[in-house]
C-alpha cells in the first residue's frame, strides 16, 4: 500500500490493459508453488479414476460461464495443465480482466484425456475463485468511479491463497492494502495501549522500520488529531458514521501535514458510493476476498478414440 506522501510508486512492469484501460498486474511470484501444492493436495499418490480411461485417448473440453463475471485466473489454469503435461493446448476466448456474459465460452483445452480429467478440478477451483474475487473488486471499483476514492482489499483472504486473491483484486480494478504483517504497519487499539499512546506507537514504528508506511486505526476525532500530529502516513476510521467521516476529512485537510484517510467497517455495495463521496481517500472492504462466492462455470468434455494401430505388412 502506498500513500501520496511516500516516494512515487515505480511504473507498472507490464503494459497489458483491459478494454477499460485497467493495467493488468504481473502474476504473483509464488504462482507455480501454489499450483503445485493444489495439485499435490488433489492427486496425492495418483488419480485412481482417470486411470480407468484407456491410454492415448484424446479429449477436448470447453469452459463456459453461467453468469456475468470478470475473467481472472488464466495464468493459474495454464500452470495447472503445464505442470501435468506441457503438451496440453489451451485456446482462450476472452482476455484476462475481460467482462464476460452468461453462456460465453472462456476457453477450450485439448490433450490427453487422463490429463484433462486430472487437472479439471484444480484448474476450475482457481478460475472460479479468482473470477469471483475480480468480479467483486470490479463491482466496488465501478461504484466509486469518479469520486477519487480508491477501493482496497484487506488481509481477510482464504488461507494459502492470499497472493492469488490479491492478484485478482488488481485484475478487477481495485488495489491492494498491505500484503501481510511484513510490508506495512497498522497500529490498532491494543498496539496503542501497549506502546503508551498513539504518538509513542508511531515513533517506535518509525524508529524500527523507517521505510514502512505507518497507519493508525482511530475511533474518535481526537485520536485522528493525535495520528496527524504524530506524523502517521494514514488513519483508518473505524466504524465512523458518514457525518463523522466528513468531519474527519475536514479536520485532516486543515492540518499542516494532512495524512491519507481510509474508511473501513460495514461497507457494502449500497453504501460505498456515499462513503467515497465524504472525501475519504480509501475504502477497505474485507468482503471482496472473504465473502467471495465461486463463479458458476461449466466444463464440457468430448472424447476421441485412440488412433488405430497401423496394419502389419
Concise overview:
The protein has 313 residues and is α/β, with parallel strands linked by helices. The protein is built from ten helices and twelve strands.
Tell me the Rg in angstroms: 24 Å
The global form is elongated
Give the spatial strand order of the biggest sheet: 6-11-10-9-8-7
Beta strands, count: 12
Helix-strand sequence: HEEHEEEHEHEHHEHEHEHEHE
Describe the structure.
The protein is an alpha/beta fold and 313 residues long. It has helices at 31-43, 74-84, 113-143, 162-171, 189-195, 198-208, 221-230, 242-253, 272-276, 287-290; strands at 58-65, 69-70, 89-92, 99-100, 105-112, 150-152, 185-187, 214-218, 234-238, 260-264, 282-284, 297-304. Helices cover 36% and strands 18% of the residues. It has a 6-stranded parallel beta sheet with strand order 6-11-10-9-8-7. Strands 3-5-1-12 form a 4-stranded antiparallel beta sheet, with helices on one face. Helix 7 links the parallel strand 8 and strand 9. Helix 3 packs across helix 4 and helix 5 (189-195) crosses helix 6 (198-208). The protein is elongated, with a radius of gyration of 24 Å. The N and C termini lie far apart (71 Å). Residues 4-15 and 308-313 have low confidence and may be disordered.
